[in-house]
# Entry
Amino acid sequence: MGSDYTTLSRHVLTQMGGFSADAYDISALMGRIGLAGKIIARQLSRAGLVADVLGITGTTNIQGEEVKKMDEFANQAFIRAFEQSGLVCRLASEEMEKPYYLPENCPIGRYTLVFDPIDGSSNIDVNLAVGTIFAVRQAEQTPPEDPDRDLLQPGHKQIIAGYLLYGSSTMLVYSMGKGVHAFTLDSSLGEFILSHENIKMPDKGFIYSVNEGNFSQWSEGMQNYIRYVHRQPGYSARYSGALVADIHRILFQGGVFLYPGTTKHPHGKLRLLYENAPLAYIIQQAGGKASNGKEDILDITPQSLHDRSPLFIGSKEDVDLVLSFLNG
Ligand code: AFP
# Structure
């Protein structure tokens, strides 16, 4: 625990290098993300005791997946946190087909927010860790016929990216391009307190995280990589069903997370804009690497809000090794 109890807002102001209007806006914006995270964490902690935490809503999202009650709740928590904030004019998320406009913020809202409200939502019904992923970009003037254009930007245009992990404690991990910093929610204070500053991940690890149930649907290169780690002493498989939890482990301990394309789904399952790109930003800031098998994840321009892409992310040497198998 940071001995001086650095709060999230104080840390953001320090990262911004002063007390300018921009610094206060970004600090307020991070505060709103933290608030949504606290509301979600509180709701998750009462799963099974209050209605509307466990189970499904009975509807499907734009990807055709069942919407869980917590997906809906968390999506609304973010929208409500940013209403009347003057900060963000448009939000886009996994749960909304189109971006959500907050017209009251639009004249002055200079930022856009993309997020996955609950990552790994199938874990909720069995009381396992889940997460929220987010990224902030600068809003730009967009032509009326193409109002979403500034959301469809490559990951290196993100000015802030991060995630919340609802695990044995609730953590918020973020980067504004100056290292990766983690905060732990002290629920008695109701504050995120700096717990890990300037996280640097190992260049090489011994964890590989992948759904091996898909083995028969992978490319030969991908299958050969997995055969290789099976033969090497020291590797451990870890896969939780929540990307945030698996990436968090790799951030601290090194290793690689893989979600390749399959014969049925050549682009894999994960979404570029609000899953892969924010996590790639974090991992690269910590000294790691993220690729879709050919390109750096942060260089890819999404063609639509819900584009999917394969993901190979983690310690540099591990990702390079995977790429050497994939590319022969
Ligand atoms: P849900 O949010 O629909 O549960 O999906 C979670 C996720 O996008 C990601 O967090 C996991 O790593 C991945 O899917 C798990 O997918 P598989 O079940 O296909 O391994």
